[in-house]
Amino acid sequence: MIKVTIDNILVEVEEGTTILQAARMIGGKVVPPAMCYYTKLEGSGGKCRSCLVKVAKASAKDPRPFPKLVASCSTPVQDGMVVENNISAEVCEARKGVVEFLLLNHPLDCPVCDQAGECDLQDLSFGYGLEETNTLESRREYPVVDIGPLIKLHMNRCIHCYRCVLVAEQLTKKRAHGMLYRADSMEISTFIQTSINNDFSGNMIDVCPVGALTDRTFRFRSRVWFLKPMNAHRECSKCNGKVTAWMFGNEIYRITGCKDEFGELEEFICNECRFDKKDVNDWIIDGPRKIRRQSVISGNQYENIKKGSIIHPIEGTTELQE
């Protein structure tokens, strides 16, 4: 076993464990945010840079610090390593820069986005985002691409985390979409405008950390905080049939996979369970599901609420409230 210290908390982990995985063993505020890393998706991580941490001591044998911040999702721990996350001012400043970069082209459509209330980017920007932008340029926009009758693609919201592509590669036999082009023109799209219609394509919605991929069968029907998440199951020949049923009264508005405290799916579910079984009689309701994530849907567990700015539109100024 290897001993590593993260934010002054000592934990023992197995060799080969990454800093992010070690932090998740501790839990709480020690855990760095992650927008692209996904435990069940091989090859994920290292793209969004939101999990950057400071290694103040490389190991017991080599006490020198790392020369720059590293991505905790892809950096393995060493015996005696000392890592700083929230206690490092350098990390917090770097994370603010990452959030600003992610929001550089992200549209300000949270009021109409179905992901609102359970959006990782909302949570990240709440903790590290700036109230004002430093840019005057217009935001990047993409033409609308139809990828099928079940999933709506909003490419303008995409942060290029690559999770949905990995889902298609690792859960299905034939991948119909991927990353096209490069740099600022890079986009998620289907090849030759084909439709995505495999049995597990709906998991792309659950792994998407923003509102780039949304459920057409639930779109604009309700906000998640008005719904009650319930544990439910059924006999299914394609998946384990264990889901979260989001209900309003006795009506099921949508079906999603069950997620853990880090917002990752415990098990992938099939499209039949997700899209076709919306009748309450199709399911055995096991009881309320407690959302353990720190988000709007987990019971307003945000802390250190900031006072909103006062905008003076005529003068064109913004007054910050302490």
Give, in order, the helices and strands. Answer: EEHEEEHHEHEEHEEEEHEEE
Under CATH, the topology of the domain at 2-98 can be stated as: Ubiquitin-like (UB roll)
Main sheet strand line-up: 2-1-5-3-4
End-to-end Cα distance, whole Å, is 47 Å
Number of strands: 15
Helical content stands at 10-25%
Explain what the structure shows.
By secondary structure, the chain is an alpha+beta fold. It has a domain at 2-98: Ubiquitin-like (UB roll) (Roll), CATH 3.10.20.740. The protein has 6 helices and 15 strands. The strands form 5 sheets. The protein has a 5-stranded mixed β-sheet with strand order 2-1-5-3-4, with helices on both faces. A 4-stranded antiparallel β-sheet has the order 12-11-10-13. Helix 2 (89-102) crosses helix 3. The longest helix has 14 residues, at 89-102. The model has no long low-confidence stretch (mean pLDDT 85).
Question: What is shown here, in short?
Answer:
With 322 residues, the chain is an alpha+beta fold. The chain is 16% helix and 20% strand.
Topology (elements, then pairings):
Layout: E1 2-6, E2 9-13, H1 19-26, E3 52-57, E4 70-71, E5 81-84, H2 89-102, H3 120-128, E6 151-153, H4 163-171, E7 177-180, E8 187-190, H5 203-207, E9 213-215, E10 228-233, E11 242-248, E12 251-256, H6 271-276, E13 284-288, E14 310-312, E15 317-319
